[in-house]
């Protein structure tokens, strides 16, 4: 069974007075490890990687990897489970860009690291052909020592991964999963029925539907806020407890709506800041959530 199942949190990057707040980042990793999530995504869109220089990206990843091991180990200090039998919380790393060669170089830099895989979207802005997309991903998968998770998010990249493209890419042994943000039920269902790619919901509101259809899990920014409930949702549906899963999901829906009422990750950061976990800071051109939305989020979180 692929490791790309369950609830994954695409980690924010906390800032304090303009600099990366590594202490807060480390604490967040421990929080999500203790909540029972399946893994973390480092330097994904929610982590504002475009606002980090290369050295900062490497430092953020190093902190996450170290905390993922330390968090899992500390969780086992009261048991007889060792780090060897309960490995570090898996971490996927986002790799972005629109030039194949520079992305290949980045993947080669990541190969020696103890990561679970790389997450890659289609080349953004330039809108290549489907043949160009296949060549791009095949080249990058050839260069990677780790599994590849495709990221189908056409409203950010300007081009979607067509079903035939995804099925062609599924033939590569290292392309193992897809973060599904395309909004096509036909494509989602076809991929699940094909069975070669693990399908992870990438739109938080589609988590319930995707899991019920047979998807493997979700990469959900909303899970920053109520990770235990998202884990309980996944476990209920995996156990066939549809009524319980539906009940949990319905309690999450108002919060999910609010967390995406303004550009991500501003609402997530506002709510985490209200809980004292981080400071409410983003890097330009991202801006903080409005005061009105922040108040609404706090009210929802307290219900």
UniProtKB/TrEMBL annotation:
<dbReference type="GO" id="GO:0009089">
    <property type="term" value="P:lysine biosynthetic process via diaminopimelate"/>
</dbReference>
<comment type="function">
    <text>Catalyzes the condensation of (S)-aspartate-beta-semialdehyde [(S)-ASA] and pyruvate to 4-hydroxy-tetrahydrodipicolinate (HTPA).</text>
</comment>
<protein>
    <recommendedName>
        <fullName>4-hydroxy-tetrahydrodipicolinate synthase</fullName>
        <ecNumber>4.3.3.7</ecNumber>
    </recommendedName>
</protein>
<keyword id="KW-0704">Schiff base</keyword>
<feature type="binding site">
    <location>
        <position position="219"/>
    </location>
    <ligand>
        <name>pyruvate</name>
    </ligand>
</feature>
<feature type="active site" description="Schiff-base intermediate with substrate">
    <location>
        <position position="179"/>
    </location>
</feature>
<feature type="binding site">
    <location>
        <position position="46"/>
    </location>
    <ligand>
        <name>pyruvate</name>
    </ligand>
</feature>
<keyword id="KW-0963">Cytoplasm</keyword>
<dbReference type="GO" id="GO:0008840">
    <property type="term" value="F:4-hydroxy-tetrahydrodipicolinate synthase activity"/>
</dbReference>
<keyword id="KW-0456">Lyase</keyword>
<comment type="pathway">
    <text>Amino-acid biosynthesis; L-lysine biosynthesis via DAP pathway; (S)-tetrahydrodipicolinate from L-aspartate: step 3/4.</text>
</comment>
<keyword id="KW-0220">Diaminopimelate biosynthesis</keyword>
<dbReference type="InterPro" id="IPR002220">
    <property type="entry name" value="DapA-like"/>
</dbReference>
<dbReference type="Pfam" id="PF00701">
    <property type="entry name" value="DHDPS"/>
</dbReference>
<dbReference type="GO" id="GO:0005737">
    <property type="term" value="C:cytoplasm"/>
</dbReference>
<comment type="subunit">
    <text>Homotetramer; dimer of dimers.</text>
</comment>
<keyword id="KW-0457">Lysine biosynthesis</keyword>
<dbReference type="InterPro" id="IPR020625">
    <property type="entry name" value="Schiff_base-form_aldolases_AS"/>
</dbReference>
<feature type="site" description="Part of a proton relay during catalysis">
    <location>
        <position position="45"/>
    </location>
</feature>
<dbReference type="GO" id="GO:0019877">
    <property type="term" value="P:diaminopimelate biosynthetic process"/>
</dbReference>
<feature type="site" description="Part of a proton relay during catalysis">
    <location>
        <position position="125"/>
    </location>
</feature>
<dbReference type="InterPro" id="IPR013785">
    <property type="entry name" value="Aldolase_TIM"/>
</dbReference>
<feature type="active site" description="Proton donor/acceptor">
    <location>
        <position position="151"/>
    </location>
</feature>
<dbReference type="InterPro" id="IPR005263">
    <property type="entry name" value="DapA"/>
</dbReference>
<comment type="similarity">
    <text>Belongs to the DapA family.</text>
</comment>
<keyword id="KW-0028">Amino-acid biosynthesis</keyword>
């Amino acid at each position: 069974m692929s490791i790309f199942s369950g609830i994954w949190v695409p980690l924010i990057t906390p800032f304090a007075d303009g600099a990366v707040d590594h202490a807060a980042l480390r604490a967040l990793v421990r929080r999500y490890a203790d909540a029972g999530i399946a893994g973390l995504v480092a330097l994904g869109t929610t982590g504002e990687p475009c606002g980090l220089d290369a050295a900062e990206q490497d430092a953020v990843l190093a902190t996450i990897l170290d905390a993922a091991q330390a968090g899992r180990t500390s969780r086992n200090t009261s048991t007889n489970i060792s780090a060897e039998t309960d490995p570090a919380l898996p971490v996927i790393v986002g790799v972005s860009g629109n030039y194949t060669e520079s992305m290949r170089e980045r993947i080669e830099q990541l190969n020696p690291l103890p990561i679970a895989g790389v997450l890659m979207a289609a080349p953004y802005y330039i809108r290549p052909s489907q043949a160009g997309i296949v060549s791009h991903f095949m080249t990058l998968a050839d260069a990677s020592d780790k599994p590849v998770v495709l990221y189908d998010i056409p409203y950010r990249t300007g081009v979607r991964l067509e079903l035939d493209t995804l099925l062609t890419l599924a033939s590569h042994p290292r392309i193992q999963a897809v973060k599904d943000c395309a909004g096509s039920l036909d494509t989602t269902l076809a991929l699940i029925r094909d069975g070669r790619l693990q399908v992870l919901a990438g739109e938080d509101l589609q988590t319930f539907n995707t899991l019920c259809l047979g998807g493997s899990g979700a990469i959900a920014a909303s899970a920053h806020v109520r990770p235990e409930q998202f884990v309980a949702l996944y476990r209920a549906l995996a156990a066939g407890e549809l009524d319980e899963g539906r009940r949990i999901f319905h309690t999450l829906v108002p919060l999910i709506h609010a967390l995406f009422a303004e550009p991500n990750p501003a609402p997530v950061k506002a709510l985490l800041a209200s809980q004292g976990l981080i400071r409410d800071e983003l890097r330009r051109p991202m801006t903080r959530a409005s005061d009105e939305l922040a108040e609404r989020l706090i009210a929802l979180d307290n219900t």
